[in-house]
Amino acid sequence: PTLNQQAAPTDTAPGKANRLVRAVSVSFKSNVGIQTVVPLTRIADRVDHEAAQGADLVILPEHCQGCNERSQETLDGPTITAMARIARRHRTYIVVPIDRKDGDLRFNSSVLLDRGGNVVCIYDKVYPVYQDECERTPPIRPGDSARVYKADFGRVGFATCFDVNWASLWRRLSNLGAELVVFPSAYSAGRSLQAHAIVNNYYVMSSTRIPDCQVYDIDGELLLHDKENAGSGVNVTRIQLDMDRCIFHQDQNMPHKLDSLLQAHGNDVEREKWLPLEGWFVLRARHPGASAQELAKQFGLETLQHYLNRSQCEIDQCRGWEFA
């Protein structure tokens, strides 16, 4: 499928100071069978509790209300309706994965609700499991687009379960500017998720039916892995992510540009990570009033992904390739 770009709402979040997001993964042990789906009231109670504590983003696992002959629902169905009330009440973004009915079509969808409870983005799983989802009645239709949404704290991308096996989708999310990719899933995915974080330099956070949650840093470091930490088949993972942190290659940025930045603004920004084997480093703002991204830009530092994309274009020109 062609991974088409989605037009994103106008927003000034990327680059501004103090882009901290309090993200929560809420997951319940279940499978898609009708007898083992967690009641919606129980899920809503847990999400409401987490949202009331000040969460900016709550993520639920894939098919949180099952995938069977009775689980299909529209955007005005009971699951989205219940979560929209919570999003409005607590001013919280919520990712709600459902077995979505759209006319005669069926999709495995992650629905993003904004702080007002509005549906602002729908991601339809691009790679359903062929021997399972594509052979259901009716079959789950593959999505055809990557999705990245500009929330007020930064750009959020989406991938679901079996999607983890296709690097092209994850690269498209990077090219669309994703800073955090949420991953509702039936299983953990483990090092496959880590590989995407390493290659694409965005945060990755999961919510699964194991139930567990993994969070990977923008350099691929595993920040945490929680499993059924709330007991009774429930996992709740809370983490604060700094969306202003940025990663660079040493090429073209060292020593002069980085040294000049740190000499002029050492009280505002720091080199948080030094990765000599990869030739990378990470910058972080020291206080809420500063932006590492903006200061780096002022001093001419080029982010790792921009450097690699630009290099590819220049190398292709050396080959004599022409582009319209």
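(the above was protein one; protein two follows)
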Amino acid sequence: MYRLGFLLCDRPLDHLAARFGDYPRMFRQAFDEVCEAFEWVVYDATDAELPLAVTECDGYLISGSRHGAYDPLPWIEPLSAFISDVATTAVPMVGLCFGHQLIGHTLGGKVVQSDKGWGIGINDYQIEQAESWMSPPLPRMTVPVCHQDQVTALPPAAKRIAGNAHCENFVVRFRDNMIGIQGHPEFPPEFLAELVEWRHDRLPDDVLATARASIKKPHHNREIKTWIANFLGLPQQA
């Protein structure tokens, strides 16, 4: 059976966890929509839990986090070292939001708190160059986002796949076996709506209004989860 290593980099706020469950549960429910049975192996990276060898799992998925890839937290450097190890192999790895940023940072790109401000809500991104794993194909992708940090300069050999004027490097193929997506296709719109309200006092009025209005937009969460499953080689529903 396929073993997916889930590298956990944060926990939801208590009131959100009570309603939506923790992140491992949220991710499991999200990928159950597109995948057949496989083994989830959870590593709490924030508690120094990491695979002893890259080959412990068939592929890896890195979660988002409220922290920054550049933060001097004791668990980030070991996780970064593990990403470097995976980069020298053919084992597939996908990073979402913080995971995307940390892959970029680790491989020599630049990650900063963007002067373009918050990306929050359900937003649209143009596909610049489709790849074989991006099936079903889409001309653009609409997905939940919640971030200030961005990958603003790509590491060597990386290729931009999708972006928009606010976040140019939204989807990136960092290596043949590594991609990053700045969005959160695992987030139900209801969860994102709660995050928007939790941050309402930190958001400019126009950003808050746009984010609130976006929650009911149709999105491509299912399609993007299928892309991730394709890239990782996860068993998929017929």
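Reviewer note on protein two: The longest helix spans residues 76-87.
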